[in-house]
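Re: your question about LLM class F420-dependent oxidoreductase

S., sorry for the slow reply, the queue was backed up all week. Below is exactly what I fed in.
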Amino acid sequence: MPNPKNGNRTMIPTKRIALTLPSPDGTVAGSIAAARQAEALGYQDIWLADAGGLDALTLAPLLLEHTEKLRIGIAVIPIFTRTPAVLASTFSVLEQAYPGRFIPGLGTSSHAIIEGWHGLPFEKPVTRTREIMALLRTIMAGEKTAFSGDTLRSHGYRQGVTETPIYLAALRPRMLETAAEIGDGVILNLYPRSALPKILGHIRDGAERAAKNPDSVEVVSRQMTVVTDDKTSARAAFRAAFSAYYSTPVYNKFLAWCGFEDAAREIREGWASKDRERTAAALSDELVDDIAFIGSASECQEQIRWCADSGVHTQIISCIQPTSEIYTATLQAFGAEQFTL
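Result:
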Protein backbone atom coordinates (compact mmCIF):
# COMPACT_ATOMS: atom_id res chain seq x y z
CA MET A 1 0.00 0.00 0.00
CA PRO A 2 1.48 3.39 -0.91
CA ASN A 3 2.56 5.64 1.95
CA PRO A 4 -0.02 8.44 2.28
CA LYS A 5 2.68 10.90 3.32
CA ASN A 6 4.42 10.53 0.00
CA GLY A 7 3.16 13.40 -2.12
CA ASN A 8 4.93 12.05 -5.21
CA ARG A 9 3.37 8.62 -5.44
CA THR A 10 4.65 6.68 -8.41
CA MET A 11 2.68 3.44 -8.06
CA ILE A 12 0.13 3.06 -10.85
CA PRO A 13 -3.23 1.72 -9.60
CA THR A 14 -4.45 -1.55 -11.04
CA LYS A 15 -7.91 -2.07 -12.48
CA ARG A 16 -10.21 -3.50 -9.82
CA ILE A 17 -13.77 -4.78 -9.59
CA ALA A 18 -15.67 -4.11 -6.39
CA LEU A 19 -19.10 -4.53 -4.84
CA THR A 20 -21.04 -1.98 -2.83
CA LEU A 21 -22.57 -2.89 0.52
CA PRO A 22 -24.50 -3.04 2.92
CA SER A 23 -26.31 -6.02 1.50
CA PRO A 24 -29.80 -5.81 0.00
CA ASP A 25 -31.36 -6.93 3.30
CA GLY A 26 -29.54 -4.16 5.18
CA THR A 27 -28.28 -6.41 7.99
CA VAL A 28 -24.84 -7.07 9.43
CA ALA A 29 -25.15 -10.82 8.88
CA GLY A 30 -26.30 -10.30 5.29
CA SER A 31 -23.43 -7.93 4.60
CA ILE A 32 -20.85 -10.38 5.94
CA ALA A 33 -22.35 -13.16 3.83
CA ALA A 34 -22.39 -10.91 0.75
CA ALA A 35 -18.76 -9.93 1.27
CA ARG A 36 -17.68 -13.55 1.57
CA GLN A 37 -19.67 -14.44 -1.54
CA ALA A 38 -18.09 -11.56 -3.46
CA GLU A 39 -14.60 -12.68 -2.44
CA ALA A 40 -15.35 -16.23 -3.56
CA LEU A 41 -16.50 -14.88 -6.93
CA GLY A 42 -13.23 -13.00 -7.42
CA TYR A 43 -14.19 -9.45 -6.44
CA GLN A 44 -11.21 -7.51 -5.11
CA ASP A 45 -12.94 -4.83 -3.02
CA ILE A 46 -16.01 -4.06 -0.97
CA TRP A 47 -16.97 -0.40 -0.67
CA LEU A 48 -19.43 0.70 1.99
CA ALA A 49 -21.76 3.66 2.08
CA ASP A 50 -21.95 5.73 5.26
CA ALA A 51 -25.31 7.42 4.94
CA GLY A 52 -27.47 6.06 7.71
CA GLY A 53 -28.46 2.56 8.70
CA LEU A 54 -25.39 0.41 9.29
CA ASP A 55 -22.42 2.49 10.42
CA ALA A 56 -19.61 1.96 7.91
CA LEU A 57 -16.74 2.44 10.35
CA THR A 58 -18.26 -0.22 12.60
CA LEU A 59 -19.11 -2.60 9.77
CA ALA A 60 -15.70 -2.33 8.04
CA PRO A 61 -13.69 -4.31 10.65
CA LEU A 62 -16.36 -7.00 10.76
CA LEU A 63 -16.02 -7.48 6.99
CA LEU A 64 -12.22 -7.41 7.22
CA GLU A 65 -12.31 -10.06 9.93
CA HIS A 66 -14.62 -12.36 7.97
CA THR A 67 -12.73 -12.16 4.64
CA GLU A 68 -9.17 -12.96 3.70
CA LYS A 69 -7.91 -10.56 1.04
CA LEU A 70 -10.66 -8.10 0.20
CA ARG A 71 -9.83 -4.42 0.38
CA ILE A 72 -12.60 -2.64 2.29
CA GLY A 73 -13.27 1.00 1.42
CA ILE A 74 -15.83 3.56 2.51
CA ALA A 75 -17.43 5.91 0.00
CA VAL A 76 -17.93 8.13 1.81
CA ILE A 77 -17.51 9.21 5.44
CA PRO A 78 -19.05 12.70 5.79
CA ILE A 79 -16.40 15.20 6.89
CA PHE A 80 -18.86 17.11 9.08
CA THR A 81 -19.94 14.26 11.37
CA ARG A 82 -16.66 13.09 12.93
CA THR A 83 -13.66 15.04 14.19
CA PRO A 84 -10.17 14.54 12.73
CA ALA A 85 -8.97 13.02 16.02
CA VAL A 86 -11.79 10.46 16.00
CA LEU A 87 -11.12 9.58 12.36
CA ALA A 88 -7.35 9.31 12.83
CA SER A 89 -7.67 7.06 15.88
CA THR A 90 -10.15 4.83 14.05
CA PHE A 91 -7.87 4.59 11.03
CA SER A 92 -4.99 3.65 13.33
CA VAL A 93 -6.88 0.70 14.78
CA LEU A 94 -7.92 -0.62 11.38
CA GLU A 95 -4.45 -0.21 9.85
CA GLN A 96 -2.81 -2.03 12.75
CA ALA A 97 -5.35 -4.84 12.70
CA TYR A 98 -5.64 -5.21 8.89
CA PRO A 99 -2.55 -3.64 7.26
CA GLY A 100 -3.10 -2.37 3.73
CA ARG A 101 -6.71 -3.54 3.48
CA PHE A 102 -8.67 -0.47 4.54
CA ILE A 103 -9.33 2.65 2.44
CA PRO A 104 -11.29 5.48 4.07
CA GLY A 105 -13.00 7.82 1.66
CA LEU A 106 -14.06 11.25 2.90
CA GLY A 107 -16.67 13.50 1.33
CA THR A 108 -18.73 16.58 2.04
CA SER A 109 -22.00 14.62 1.74
CA SER A 110 -25.06 16.82 1.12
CA HIS A 111 -27.31 19.46 2.65
CA ALA A 112 -30.03 16.85 3.17
CA ILE A 113 -27.79 14.57 5.24
CA ILE A 114 -25.66 17.10 7.11
CA GLU A 115 -28.30 19.74 7.82
CA GLY A 116 -31.40 17.56 7.70
CA TRP A 117 -30.31 14.34 9.40
CA HIS A 118 -27.54 15.61 11.65
CA GLY A 119 -28.64 19.18 12.33
CA LEU A 120 -25.19 20.53 11.49
CA PRO A 121 -24.33 23.50 9.26
CA PHE A 122 -23.21 22.59 5.74
CA GLU A 123 -20.71 25.43 5.34
CA LYS A 124 -17.45 25.96 3.42
CA PRO A 125 -17.18 22.35 2.22
CA VAL A 126 -13.95 22.79 0.26
CA THR A 127 -12.30 24.68 3.13
CA ARG A 128 -13.48 22.01 5.55
CA THR A 129 -12.02 19.31 3.30
CA ARG A 130 -8.63 21.01 3.15
CA GLU A 131 -8.56 21.59 6.89
CA ILE A 132 -9.60 18.08 7.87
CA MET A 133 -6.97 16.65 5.53
CA ALA A 134 -4.28 18.96 6.95
CA LEU A 135 -5.14 17.83 10.46
CA LEU A 136 -5.29 14.17 9.51
CA ARG A 137 -1.89 14.37 7.82
CA THR A 138 -0.43 15.96 10.96
CA ILE A 139 -2.00 13.46 13.35
CA MET A 140 -1.22 10.41 11.22
CA ALA A 141 2.41 11.52 10.93
CA GLY A 142 2.66 11.27 14.73
CA GLU A 143 2.90 15.01 15.26
CA LYS A 144 1.10 17.02 17.95
CA THR A 145 -1.72 19.22 16.67
CA ALA A 146 -1.56 23.00 16.83
CA PHE A 147 -4.19 24.06 14.33
CA SER A 148 -6.71 26.89 14.18
CA GLY A 149 -8.56 27.13 10.89
CA ASP A 150 -11.78 28.59 9.57
CA THR A 151 -13.81 25.44 10.26
CA LEU A 152 -11.67 23.27 12.57
CA ARG A 153 -9.40 23.61 15.59
CA SER A 154 -7.20 21.08 17.39
CA HIS A 155 -4.40 21.59 19.90
CA GLY A 156 -2.33 19.07 21.79
CA TYR A 157 -3.58 15.80 20.28
CA ARG A 158 -1.02 13.16 19.28
CA GLN A 159 -1.06 9.49 18.34
CA GLY A 160 1.25 7.01 16.65
CA VAL A 161 2.11 7.07 12.97
CA THR A 162 -0.65 5.65 10.75
CA GLU A 163 0.05 4.92 7.08
CA THR A 164 -3.51 4.75 5.77
CA PRO A 165 -4.22 6.36 2.40
CA ILE A 166 -7.20 8.71 2.34
CA TYR A 167 -9.44 9.12 -0.70
CA LEU A 168 -11.69 12.11 -1.31
CA ALA A 169 -15.06 12.27 -3.04
CA ALA A 170 -15.57 14.98 -5.64
CA LEU A 171 -18.06 16.20 -8.23
CA ARG A 172 -17.27 19.58 -9.79
CA PRO A 173 -13.93 21.17 -10.86
CA ARG A 174 -12.75 22.79 -7.64
CA MET A 175 -13.32 19.69 -5.54
CA LEU A 176 -12.07 17.30 -8.24
CA GLU A 177 -8.80 19.20 -8.40
CA THR A 178 -8.57 19.49 -4.61
CA ALA A 179 -9.21 15.75 -4.18
CA ALA A 180 -6.42 14.84 -6.58
CA GLU A 181 -4.11 17.45 -5.10
CA ILE A 182 -4.36 16.52 -1.41
CA GLY A 183 -5.92 13.05 -1.43
CA ASP A 184 -4.50 9.65 -2.32
CA GLY A 185 -7.42 8.80 -4.58
CA VAL A 186 -10.61 10.34 -5.96
CA ILE A 187 -14.13 8.93 -5.55
CA LEU A 188 -16.77 9.64 -8.21
CA ASN A 189 -20.50 9.05 -8.13
CA LEU A 190 -23.55 9.40 -10.38
CA TYR A 191 -21.79 11.09 -13.29
CA PRO A 192 -23.02 10.92 -16.89
CA ARG A 193 -20.41 9.03 -18.87
CA SER A 194 -20.44 11.77 -21.50
CA ALA A 195 -18.86 14.04 -18.85
CA LEU A 196 -16.16 11.59 -17.78
CA PRO A 197 -13.37 13.04 -19.99
CA LYS A 198 -13.66 16.52 -18.45
CA ILE A 199 -14.00 15.05 -14.95
CA LEU A 200 -10.76 13.14 -15.42
CA GLY A 201 -9.15 16.25 -16.90
CA HIS A 202 -9.71 18.16 -13.66
CA ILE A 203 -8.30 15.24 -11.67
CA ARG A 204 -5.15 15.40 -13.78
CA ASP A 205 -4.92 19.16 -13.26
CA GLY A 206 -5.11 18.78 -9.49
CA ALA A 207 -2.52 16.02 -9.43
CA GLU A 208 -0.12 18.00 -11.56
CA ARG A 209 -0.52 21.03 -9.30
CA ALA A 210 0.77 18.86 -6.45
CA ALA A 211 3.64 17.55 -8.61
CA LYS A 212 2.10 14.08 -8.64
CA ASN A 213 2.04 11.69 -11.54
CA PRO A 214 -1.66 11.97 -12.52
CA ASP A 215 -1.70 8.29 -13.44
CA SER A 216 -0.84 7.42 -9.81
CA VAL A 217 -4.09 8.83 -8.42
CA GLU A 218 -6.59 6.01 -8.09
CA VAL A 219 -10.06 6.90 -9.39
CA VAL A 220 -12.90 4.97 -7.75
CA SER A 221 -16.53 5.08 -8.84
CA ARG A 222 -19.76 3.54 -7.63
CA GLN A 223 -21.47 2.26 -10.79
CA MET A 224 -25.26 1.92 -10.61
CA THR A 225 -25.85 -1.36 -12.42
CA VAL A 226 -28.78 -3.62 -13.29
CA VAL A 227 -28.29 -6.77 -15.32
CA THR A 228 -31.76 -7.33 -16.74
CA ASP A 229 -33.82 -7.69 -19.91
CA ASP A 230 -36.41 -5.25 -18.54
CA LYS A 231 -34.73 -1.89 -19.10
CA THR A 232 -37.95 0.05 -18.53
CA SER A 233 -38.33 -1.30 -15.01
CA ALA A 234 -34.65 -0.73 -14.24
CA ARG A 235 -34.82 2.87 -15.41
CA ALA A 236 -37.85 3.39 -13.18
CA ALA A 237 -35.86 1.97 -10.26
CA PHE A 238 -33.05 4.44 -10.99
CA ARG A 239 -35.46 7.37 -11.07
CA ALA A 240 -37.05 6.25 -7.82
CA ALA A 241 -33.67 5.99 -6.14
CA PHE A 242 -31.91 9.08 -7.49
CA SER A 243 -34.31 11.81 -8.61
CA ALA A 244 -34.22 13.12 -5.04
CA TYR A 245 -30.39 13.03 -5.14
CA TYR A 246 -30.33 15.27 -8.18
CA SER A 247 -32.70 17.71 -6.50
CA THR A 248 -30.13 18.52 -3.80
CA PRO A 249 -27.97 21.60 -4.48
CA VAL A 250 -24.75 19.59 -4.68
CA TYR A 251 -25.94 17.05 -7.24
CA ASN A 252 -28.20 19.45 -9.11
CA LYS A 253 -25.30 21.80 -9.80
CA PHE A 254 -23.17 18.80 -10.73
CA LEU A 255 -25.72 17.59 -13.29
CA ALA A 256 -25.89 21.06 -14.82
CA TRP A 257 -22.10 21.30 -14.95
CA CYS A 258 -22.01 17.94 -16.74
CA GLY A 259 -24.00 19.51 -19.56
CA PHE A 260 -27.60 18.75 -18.57
CA GLU A 261 -28.76 22.23 -17.56
CA ASP A 262 -32.36 21.70 -18.73
CA ALA A 263 -32.76 18.45 -16.82
CA ALA A 264 -31.21 19.98 -13.71
CA ARG A 265 -33.58 22.94 -13.85
CA GLU A 266 -36.61 20.69 -14.39
CA ILE A 267 -35.59 18.50 -11.45
CA ARG A 268 -35.02 21.53 -9.23
CA GLU A 269 -38.34 23.14 -10.11
CA GLY A 270 -40.28 19.87 -9.93
CA TRP A 271 -38.90 19.12 -6.48
CA ALA A 272 -39.58 22.65 -5.22
CA SER A 273 -43.22 22.36 -6.35
CA LYS A 274 -43.50 18.91 -4.71
CA ASP A 275 -44.28 17.39 -8.10
CA ARG A 276 -42.43 14.09 -7.79
CA GLU A 277 -43.62 12.82 -11.18
CA ARG A 278 -42.19 15.89 -12.91
CA THR A 279 -38.94 15.50 -10.98
CA ALA A 280 -38.53 11.86 -11.98
CA ALA A 281 -39.55 12.47 -15.60
CA ALA A 282 -36.73 14.99 -15.97
CA LEU A 283 -34.38 12.00 -15.92
CA SER A 284 -35.05 10.92 -19.51
CA ASP A 285 -34.28 7.41 -20.73
CA GLU A 286 -31.23 8.79 -22.54
CA LEU A 287 -29.92 10.52 -19.42
CA VAL A 288 -30.54 7.49 -17.21
CA ASP A 289 -28.67 5.33 -19.73
CA ASP A 290 -25.77 7.82 -19.67
CA ILE A 291 -25.46 7.48 -15.89
CA ALA A 292 -26.51 3.92 -15.05
CA PHE A 293 -25.44 0.57 -16.50
CA ILE A 294 -28.61 -1.21 -17.54
CA GLY A 295 -29.07 -4.17 -19.85
CA SER A 296 -27.79 -7.65 -20.53
CA ALA A 297 -24.64 -8.91 -18.86
CA SER A 298 -22.63 -8.27 -22.02
CA GLU A 299 -24.02 -4.72 -22.39
CA CYS A 300 -23.20 -3.80 -18.80
CA GLN A 301 -19.78 -5.44 -19.01
CA GLU A 302 -18.93 -3.48 -22.15
CA GLN A 303 -19.90 -0.17 -20.54
CA ILE A 304 -17.99 -0.90 -17.33
CA ARG A 305 -14.94 -1.90 -19.36
CA TRP A 306 -15.18 1.40 -21.24
CA CYS A 307 -15.02 3.28 -17.93
CA ALA A 308 -12.00 1.25 -16.88
CA ASP A 309 -10.23 1.88 -20.16
CA SER A 310 -11.09 5.59 -19.93
CA GLY A 311 -9.39 6.07 -16.56
CA VAL A 312 -11.65 4.84 -13.74
CA HIS A 313 -9.54 2.25 -11.93
CA THR A 314 -12.00 0.73 -9.46
CA GLN A 315 -15.54 -0.12 -10.54
CA ILE A 316 -17.89 -0.47 -7.56
CA ILE A 317 -20.87 -2.46 -8.78
CA SER A 318 -24.05 -1.26 -7.08
CA CYS A 319 -27.21 -3.16 -7.96
CA ILE A 320 -30.01 -0.60 -7.86
CA GLN A 321 -32.90 -3.05 -8.38
CA PRO A 322 -31.96 -5.74 -5.89
CA THR A 323 -34.60 -8.39 -6.37
CA SER A 324 -33.08 -11.76 -5.65
CA GLU A 325 -32.90 -12.69 -9.35
CA ILE A 326 -31.47 -9.37 -10.55
CA TYR A 327 -29.01 -9.07 -7.66
CA THR A 328 -27.65 -12.55 -8.39
CA ALA A 329 -27.41 -11.90 -12.13
CA THR A 330 -25.62 -8.59 -11.56
CA LEU A 331 -23.24 -10.03 -8.98
CA GLN A 332 -22.32 -13.01 -11.16
CA ALA A 333 -21.86 -10.90 -14.30
CA PHE A 334 -18.83 -9.24 -12.73
CA GLY A 335 -17.32 -12.28 -11.03
CA ALA A 336 -13.95 -13.51 -12.23
CA GLU A 337 -15.42 -16.37 -14.26
CA GLN A 338 -17.47 -14.00 -16.47
CA PHE A 339 -15.57 -10.73 -16.43
CA THR A 340 -12.06 -9.34 -16.47
CA LEU A 341 -10.78 -5.81 -16.85
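The radius of gyration is 19 Å. DSSP finds 14 helices and eleven strands in the chain.

Happy to talk it through on Thursday.
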